[in-house]
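Minutes, project check-in
Item: structure for the 275-residue chain
Input as provided by the requester:
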Amino acid sequence: MVKKKPLSSLYSYLDSRNLNYKYVLFFTAASLLVSYLGILFIDVFNFFGLRNLFSNYTVPFFWDFVFREGSVVEVLQWSFLFLFVIFSFFLSERMKENDKGRVFWLLFGFAGIFMLAEDALNIRHVLIRNPYFPWYTQNIIETLYFGLLGVLPVLAVVKYRKPVFKDVTTKKILIFAFIFYSSAALLSGPVELTDIDTEIGNSFHSLFSSLGGEDYIESYEEGVRRIEEREKEYSMVLMDMPTRFTDYVVEESLELIGATLLFTSALSFKQFTEL
C-alpha cells in the first residue's frame, strides 16, 4: 500500500473543504467589534469595575492587553497569514495548467511567508531599529523594507493577474487588502517621522476622557506614570500613551483586516474556480 505524502493529504483535505469567505470576513468584523466594545465598556466606562482586571499591567487598559504585540489580535493575524500561505500554495498546485495563475499564487504564497515571519519575529526591529542609527534614518530604511515586502505581490498583480482577476470578487478583495496593508505600513514607517500617530492617539484620548470622566483620566495618567517609571528603570525610551494606542489599536486593526482579506481572496478564488 502506497502512503500518501503529507502535502498530498493536506491538499486532498482542502479539496473537500468549501469554507465560504464571507464567514471569515464576518468573524474578523465580529472580533474587532467585540474588541472595540470592550474598549468602550471596560476602559472608558469601567462597567462592573472590569478595568481592575488590567490594573497590574503597565498600561492598565483592556486595549493594551488585547492589541499588544503577540496578544489576541496579532495571533489572529498570524493565523490568517498562515492559512493564506497554505491556500496560496494549494491554488498554485491546482493551477498547473495555467502558468500565470500558478505563478500568481506562488508569488503570493512566498510573500505571505515573508509577511508572517516579519509579523511573528519582528525582523525589522532586529535589523533596522539599531540604537546607532538616527531615528530619521531608521524610518527611511523601515519604509524601504516595507517596500521590499511588497515587491512579490505587486509583481504578481502587475504581471500575472489576468486569470485571477477574472473573478471580480477576488479582485476587489485583493485591492482592499493592498489598501489596508499600505495604510498600516504608512503608520509604522513614514508617519512616525511626523506627529500624526500622536495626534490620532490624543484624539481618542480626548474622546474617551469626555465619555469616561475623571475615573478614566486617572487610569490614563497612571499608565503615563508607569511608562515613565519603566523608562527610568531600564534606561530606554518607550512609546508614550498616544503613540502606543495608535501603534496597537489602529495599526493592528488595519493589519488584521489586511491579513483577513488576503486569506479570503484565496478562498474566494477557490470558490470561483471550484478547485
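Outcome recorded: DSSP finds eleven helices and no strands in the chain.
No further action items on this chain.
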